[in-house]
Amino acid sequence: MDQFTLNLLVVGATFALYIGIAIWARAGSTAEFYAAGQGVHPVMNGMATGADWMSAASFISMAGIIAFGGYDTSAYLMGWTGGYVLLAMLLAPYLRKFGKFTVPEFIGDRFYSGTARFVAVVCLIIASVTYVIGQMTGVGVAFSRFLEVSNATGLYIGAAIVFAYAVLGGMKGITYTQVAQYVVLIIAYTIPAVFISLQLTGNPIPALGLFSNEVHTGQPLLQTLEGLVTDLGFKSYLNQSDTTLNMFLFTMSLMIGTAGLPHVIVRFFTVPKVSDARSSAGWALVFIALLYLTAPAVAAMARLNLINTIYPQGVAAAPVSMADIEGKEELAWVRNWAKTGLLTFEDKNGDGLVQYVGDKEVNELTVNNDIMVLANPEIANLPGWVIALVAAGGLAAALSTAAGLLMAISSAVSHDLIKGQLNPNISEKNELLAARISMGVAIAVATYLGLNPPGFAAQTVALAFGLAASSIFPALMMGIFSKRINNKGAVAGMLAGLIVTIVYIFLHKGWFFVADTASFSDSAPMLLSIKSTSFGAVGALINFAVAFAVSSATGAPPAKVQDLVESIRVPKGAGAAQSH
Q: Which chain regions cross the lipid bilayer (predicted)?
């Protein structure tokens, strides 16, 4: 059976499973659409949270960006993992104790203000739409290669699939679909990693293989890789080249951004009790760790395989020729990925060889970060079924998070904006209709922006984390742990943090992500060495400072709100979410 047919069979079978689950678990009420009826088992919820959390950025892009960025990009691992611990310990149980459906609803009630709720909706939509762009980018990358279509066509197909099961099933359908997607993605991520670890080190556990000796050289794998990349003129894989300030702020931005992501927070509203929220957070961390402990090994081994493929006789000898790439079966992966436009090769100097070196003027092979995990099994000449499985896993990761984000967007529009602000007397049927329409619009916007993303999938997602870090996280923290912050302070803080961060991002990425309008770049940032992906931590500090200053200059919150804050911090059971 040829690879294309195998890809269609495996990917098609998983899609049929997702849509079948969505039909089986179709939401029939707003409680089921927004919070899955609050009846999800903690282990199932932990698995769904893992799938929701491990997006295209984690599955497709993170290992790729580490493969080419080395030590500097390890901040992705530290920030995202540490942030989830923050979320599990500081926010999830207390928000579940409050017993509402959405993050803006909590902010609106805690800060006794429709304006605060509206600003929270705006912050949520901006962060979530930016995040979903990264997911759609990943969907386009996966579909374009494995269905042998253009990147744009792949993105359209992925959008149609998300629309089919997310709009139909709501949170209930999404939850059980994400359980299936987690199983698919974790198997798809670990099986090729085990194969490649065995090939390169003889160790079947990739995380241990990373620190084992490479079988051909007898040297530690990382030492072998370091020697190859530096000999070819690339920056060091093991040494820090970014500034400590930017790395620290980037890690903090990812951490607190993680804790402020609405599509992850809302998962903790789907369990019956506060204790279940804590339990599901613990299970989710276990499920997430299975992938995150493997990712550094996947990154290093993919980079090593890439170099060894281009320089089969070693970097001191000649690289592969144009004739080799055009004719040899073991280099078919280069030809296949070149069709997607995500890999390019050319003979600039006319010597018939393809140089892969650190000097951009001389380099003749360009590989998009986002293809490394998906291409890794092909580079390593693994069996066709493994390649098809990786395709299904990458799509599962992207689609699961996209669905969660779209759920957060639709609930913010229908529940918090339309029902909470514009039309409080809307019927449940019409509220469900509004939720589904808003989700469809969000999919269309994300697809359009996904055609021209502001960076690699992981970089685009990092921008979304910065937006969540600067706007939502401080409001949630102050809402739970400070009785003194009032409505005026909360609104001023969210607006200040959000606006400053958006402006900083646009100055570096272009206004509304139109690249030609950028005034600075991340290689030459506006403020010290702080890149656009790291500014969320600064925006969060501004949010906190403005909120405390404005609250101190104005009246204290009403006594009943202060009592509410006190009760939230005592997690002894949770009231049911209010019916709407």
A: 6-25, 77-95, 116-133, 153-170, 182-200, 247-269, 281-302, 385-413, 433-451, 457-477, 489-507, 527-550
